Amino acid sequence: MNETKETKRESGNEGKSAINRNGVNRMKSRSKLMVTLALAALMAAGGSKVWASHNSSTDSIRLLVTPSVTLAVDITSPTAGTGYDFSTVGLGLTTAAGTPATVTNTGNTAALWMLRAETDGTTWSTGTATALDVAVLQAMFTQPGSTIAASAFDTVDSTMTGTNRLASDSAARFSTGSTVMGASIPASGADSRRLWFRMKTPTESSTSAQQQFRVYVVAANP
């Protein structure tokens, strides 16, 4: 009887051990499953980005460039090698050039044009009103092929001085219309404008020698 009881007790213990082992194995399997599910949830919620950020590196490189910009203008004179000769004109009179100069943007970028006039080493000077030895020089741009009436110089600001002054449609300066100068003159190399001149001679002159002036067309960035 005692042996039988002992045998039963051992059998019972072995059964309990087997049950415990199975339970432990199931718990381990359940724990692994929970960890796997937790990692999957983390990845789905952006965990992959978190891991990637720890495994990546960012740097940058500076790129430098200096543009080669050329502002240039070319003036073709009505009379080659001379410019324009008003010839002999009386004092206190107004005379307009019959032939225009041609101005072309020969740079590689669009440009604005400014005008100024200076005495070229002679007695007379330029001004905004005529006086002794003071002449008034005026200029107007037109589109290629266009002509101009002498009276057009009086409808806008057309007087050149010794200071660079911008030719502008909106300011009605050195321009006969709303589309003559535009926002700028394109750098096509073939986009030109005609430039017309008019002079008001001084009221008096201290010299009878030929007088010379020089007109500058200055290209500037828009």
Task: List the defining traits of the structure above.
about 220 residues, alpha+beta, 1 helix, 10 strands
Describe this structure in words.
It is a single chain. This protein has 1 helix and 10 strands. The strands form 2 sheets. Strands 1, 2, 3, 5, 6, 7 and 9 form a 7-stranded mixed sheet that branches. A 3-stranded antiparallel sheet has the order 8-4-10, with no helix packed on it. It folds into 2 domains: 1-59; 73-220, no CATH class. The chain has one helix at residues 2-54, and strands at residues 73-76, 94-96, 101-105, 112-119, 125-126, 134-142, 159-160, 165-166, 192-200, 213-220. The N and C termini lie far apart (118 Å). The chain is α+β, with helices and mostly antiparallel strands.
Q: Count the domains.
A: 2
Count of separate DSSP helical elements: 1
How widely separated are the two ends?
118 Å
The number of E-state strands comes to 10
Order of helices and strands: HEEEEEEEEEE
Shape: elongated
Unreliable stretches, pLDDT < 50, 5 or more residues? 5-10
Structural class: alpha+beta
Helix content: 10-25%
Mean pLDDT: 84
Strand content is 15-25%
Give the radius of gyration.
46 Å
The main β sheet shows up as: 7 strands, mixed
Structure summarized in a few sentences:
With 222 residues, the protein is α+β, with helices and mostly antiparallel strands. The protein contains one helix and ten strands.
